[in-house]
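Private note to self, pasted from the team thread so I don't lose it. Backbone tokens:
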């Protein structure tokens, strides 16, 4: 399943949650976050740089993630992002909200389909 490029609003509302969840397993650089999301979703979600980096900037400003500079294997500077304790709390809250929301949407979508 590939989500259409015409439906970016679906991703926009969940991007922070997806990034926080991805960073839960450890620090990653921006490209690594995008590739992890792509891999975990069987390429159904392909996050563009124009969406990813503003989200990382916003989340850094909110204190949900932090970063440090390092050197890549090809001797280039790279910025690795990690989840902060504030970000862990936000992730837990967002997951609870997401589960409630998706359960409510499922009730509406399944209405009338079961007899």
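Design output:
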């Amino acid at each position: 399943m590939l989500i259409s490029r015409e439906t970016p609003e679906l991703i926009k509302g969940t991007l922070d949650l997806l990034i926080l969840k991805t960073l839960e397993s450890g620090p990653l650089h921006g490209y690594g976050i995008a590739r992890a999301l792509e891999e975990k979703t069987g390429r159904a979600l392909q996050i563009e740089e124009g969406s990813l980096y503003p989200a990382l900037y916003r989340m850094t400003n909110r204190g949900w993630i932090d970063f440090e500079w390092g050197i890549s294997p090809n001797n280039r500077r790279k910025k690795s992002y990690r989840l902060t304790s504030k970000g862990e709390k936000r992730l837990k809250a967002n997951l609870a909200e997401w589960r409630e929301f998706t359960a409510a949407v499922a009730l509406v979508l399944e209405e009338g389909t079961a007899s």
